[in-house]
Every structure is written in C-alpha cells, then in structure tokens.
Amino acid sequence: MTNNAYLFFFLIICLSVNAQVGIGIANPKSSLDIVASNFATPSNTDGILIPRLQALPAINPTDAQHSMLIYLSTASGTYIPGFHFWDKNKGVSGEWVPILNKPGWEIDGNSNTTSGVHFLGTTNAEEVDFKVNNKLIGRLTELGQFELQADGESVLIGYEAGENYDPANTLADHNVYIGYQAAKQSTSGRDNTAVGAFVMIENTTGSYNTALGSEALQTNTIGEQNTALGDDALRYNTIGNDNTAVGQDALKVNAAGQSNTAVGRKSLRNNIGDNNVALGSFAGESITTGNNNSVLGYAADVVVGTEIETVIIGNGARGGANRVVAIGKDATASQTNAVAIGNNATASATNATAIGNGAVSNNANEMVLGNNSVTRVITSGSVRANSFISNTTTYPDYVFEDFYTGSSEINSDYKFTDLENAEKFVKANGHLPGVKSYEAVANNNFELNITETSVKNLEKIEEQFLYIVTLNEKIKDQENSIEDLKQEVEALKAIVQKLISDK
After folding, report:
1. Sign of the CA dihedral 413, 418, 421, 422?
2. Which residue ranges make up each domain of the chain?
3. Which of 113-122, 383-392, 427-436 has the weakest average pLDDT?
4. From CA 25, how far away is CA 409, in angstroms rounded?
5. Tens-place pLDDT, residues 296-309
6. What is the pLDDT of residue 19?
7. Could you say which DSSP state residue 159 is in?
8. Would you put residue 404 in left (φ > 0), alpha (ψ -120 to 50) or beta?
9. What is the rounded distance in angstroms from the CA atom of residue 233 to the CA atom of residue 465?
10. Residue 429: partners with Cβ closer than 8 Å, 6 or more residues away
C-alpha cells in the first residue's frame, strides 16, 4: 500500500511538472507514451492490460465515462467476449459498443467465410447503397428489392448491356436492357425492353421495342414498335415496324416487313412481306414476299411464297395462288380465287369452289358441295341458279323406244299406256301412271328428288307427244274421209241437177 502511494504521488508530480507520462521512454511524445522493452524482440509482457471483466457492471456508466474501454473475458447477456467501450450517444442513455475482432470484407477477396454467418450488409433496418464515382447507382432494401438507379430511368444488367447508352441523351430514357450485350449499340432508342443474350445488340435509335429471348431482334437498328418473344424471334429485322413474333425463329428473316404477326415456332420464318398473320408452329413458313395473308394451324402454309390475300385455316392446309381460301385439315386451294372448305377439300382450278369433307372441284367456275357420299342438300330458303345439273342413270327415250318397237332396252320395265287406259288410271287413282301420289309426297315431307322428277316429267311429256301423234293421225284419217264424202256429195249433187234439167 505504501509503495502504491509513493507511485501515485510520483505520477502526480510528473504530471504537474510535464503533463506527459512516459513508460520505457525518457521523452514521451503524448500524454501517455508506452514503449516496448525492445522493438525488434519484444517480451511477452510488453503491452497494456485493459481492465478485464467477467460481466458488465450492473449499473451503467454515465456521460463522464464516455469512451471508457474494458475487455469482457466471458459472454455477458448478448455481449460476446472482446473489447467494448462506453458510448454515451448510443441508445437512450448510452450503450456498450463492441470493438469487433472480425476483419472487414477485403476488396481482393475473403477466405474462411461461412455461409449463413458472414455476410455483406447491415444488421439494422438501413438499406445497403452502391456507388460509382460517389454517385448512387443501386440499393438493396429491407424488402429484398434490388434498386438500380441509372440515369434516364433505365435499367442495365449484364455484360456490356446498353454499353453505348448515353444518359445525357433525353431521347434514350426508360430502357430496360438485361443480358449479355443486350442492346449494346443502342444510343438514342427509348422505351425498349431487351432481355436475353445478344438481344437487340445492334439497335441504335429504334424505340418502343420489346424483345425476350436469345438473339431476339438481334440486328434491329431503327425498327420500332416490334415485339419479339422467343429465341431468334425477329432476329434479322432491321427497319421493320409494328411486327409481333412469338416463338422460336418466328419472323426470323424479316428485315423490313411491316405489321406482321407470327405466333408459333418458325411461323412466318422466311417472311419479308407486309400485313401477314400466322398462328401455329410452322404456319406460313414458306411465305416470302407475299402480303396480306392469314394463316392459322399447324404447318398451314402457302406453296409458292409470293401469294397475296390468302386465307388458310387448318392443320396442313395449303394455298397455292392469290386470293385463295383453304379451310380445314389438309384443305388445298391451288388456283386463283379458288375456295376449298372442309377436311381434305380440294379446289384446283380458277374460281373453283369445293365445300365439304373430301369435296373436289377441278373445273374453273365450278362449285362442288360434298364428296361422292353426299346424297342430300337441305336448305330452309330458296335456291336460285341459271341452270341445274344433276346426275342420272337413265333418260326417257325409252318411251319412244317402247311405243314404236314394243319394248325398250333402255328401260325394260317401262310399258307405254294408251290414252284410254291412262284416263282410266287417273280416274281411279287421282294421278298419272308412274307419278307419285299426293299422299306419297306428303309422307316424305314434300321432299322431291329433282333428278327423278325431271326424268318422270320428261317421260310424261313424251307420252303426251305420242298421244298427240296418235290423235293427229286419227284426225288426218277423218279429214281424208270427209274429203271423200264431200266429193261424193258433189257427185250426187251433179246427178240430181242433171235429172232436174232433163225433165
């Protein structure tokens, strides 16, 4: 105790004389200057022992102890072992602040890191900011947002994405470029969205484009209002506008074509025309310079590629000339203005129309309804035409054949009925021989077979002709008889006159 008192008084005297204390040094350079016993080979006792505590004080220090340093040798509450100092400005009335013995993140890499333990970020609710040239460019938020803050309200993510983007150019605002070299050459284009490797890589001033998928709209330079979704979609478009391509290789080679829509893998792949619409994988794949075509269905297509104004609907449907319509699976219309409607329907001549499953029209200006299996065509309205053609297996010349020869090879079942017997039949049955009665027609819902009726009508006309011929022969015989009688009367008159004159 006495020695400590002497030391204390000695220190007081030194401080009062020089206001500096040196330990191991005669000329201290600060208020307290401690020098090791040997700089090169220090001993294990060279150093300062800060007060060591096994627990933090039950009563917190006050403002007077601001910056007081301790060493916590064992954990105390939430405080881990290590150096701590008292900070009067922390918390409500001051807090112990640990001096962490952990190294900071190194700019050249870190070793001995443990996932879930070591991290880059904050332990409070503050956001993590990223700066370049002391300018805020990005932020990680408490909500998990990754906010990029490029000039012009644009977002650029990926190696060389938007490399030539000029934030000072007000015409280049509101772009989103994400992917390897996405929109690398773009300078003044605005309101573009490019996502994927090499997407819109050659775009310069093109605006209002949307491209998603590797190499989509890759060579577009000034084209605008285009939408490309899928690998290589609209890949070689350069100046074309208002095109929509959805699917791998959709509208791939379109360079300057305008207002085309292609949905499906390789749909309109070779198109360079305008105003074409294709929906379905491989739909319209053969169209090249053709315009105003509408193609719908898997592999629905044209034959030549230069056709215009065609409508092709159905899997495998084909059009082979201008202004054709082919609707139905594998329907084919191959000549100008031809129409084929129905599965496997075929119209192979100019202005030919084939309607129905398997219907075939091979003649110009011809319409075919149904295939050979179709036996009835029903409508609730009127049917008008300059002429009707129907198929039949016979013709009423058998009437003349039977009348003049007594039998017919054309129709062996037919037997001519003379007028007297025909009259008797009509009186008994109310209709001509061989003609359907009212009851029979009514029982069939008044449906008439035009071919059958036409043949039967001609049969009756020929019978009427023969009745007239027969009557005409009888009239001629009567006329001859009358002439003979007239001559006889004249002869008698002459005899009578002679007798009278002879008296």
Report:
1. positive
2. 21-99, 127-241, 310-373, 398-489
3. 383-392
4. 150
5. 999 999 999 999 99
6. 62
7. T
8. alpha
9. 77
10. 437
The structure tokens listed for 356 are 């129905």
Give the burial class of 233: count Cβ atoms within 10 A of its Cβ; 0-12 exposed, 13-18 middle, 19 or more buried: buried
The pLDDT confidence band at residue 5, using thresholds 50, 70 and 90, is: very low
For 429, the token pair is 């049955």
For the CA atoms of the chain, what is the radius of gyration? 55
3-state secondary structure 44-110: CCCCCCCCEECCCCCCCCCHHHCCCEEEECCCECCECCEEEEEECCCCCCCEEEEECCCCCCCCCCC
**Residues 324-341: b if buried by 16+ CB within 10 A, e if exposed:** bbbbbbbbbbbbbbbbbb
Model confidence over 165-220: pLDDT tens digits?
877 777 788 999 999 999 999 988 999 999 999 999 999 999 999 999 999 999 99
Residue keyed to tokens 């064992």: 74
**What band does 16 get if pLDDT is binned at 50, 70 and 90?**
very low
- Residue 381: predicted pLDDT: 82
Pairing of strands 52-53, 69-72: parallel
Q: How far apart are CA 472 and CA 37, in angstroms?
A: 163
User: How confident is the model over 240-250, as pLDDT tens digits?
Assistant: 999 999 999 99
Return the H-helix or E-strand segment holding 270: none
Structure tokens at 328: 């139905």
Q: Answer for the pair 114, 93: CB distance below 8 angstroms, yes or no.
A: no
The span from the CA of 279 to the CA of 317, in Å, is 13
Residue 2 CB burial class (10 angstroms; 0-12, 13-18, ≥19):
exposed
Element housing 296 (H / E) = strand 294-296
Structure tokens, 496: 């009578």
Residue with tokens 């619409």: 277
Residues ≥6 apart with Cβ < 8 Å to 217: 194, 199, 200, 203, 209, 211, 223, 226, 228, 233, 234, 235, 237
Position with higher pLDDT, 28 vs 323: 323
Question: Architecture of 310-373 per CATH?
Answer: 2 Solenoid (2.150)
Q: Which residue has the higher pLDDT, 340 or 76?
A: 340
Sign of torsion, CA 290 293 298 302? Answer: negative
The pLDDT, as a whole number, for residue 28 is 84
What is the DSSP secondary-structure string of 299-330?
T-EESSS---S-EEESTT-EE-STT-EEESTT
Please, which residues bridge with residue 295 across strands?
278, 312
Q: Distance between CA atoms of 143 and 198, rounded to whole angstroms?
A: 31
* CA atoms of 392 and 411, how far apart (whole Å): 13
* Cα–Cα distance for residue pair 191/463, rounded to 1 Å: 87
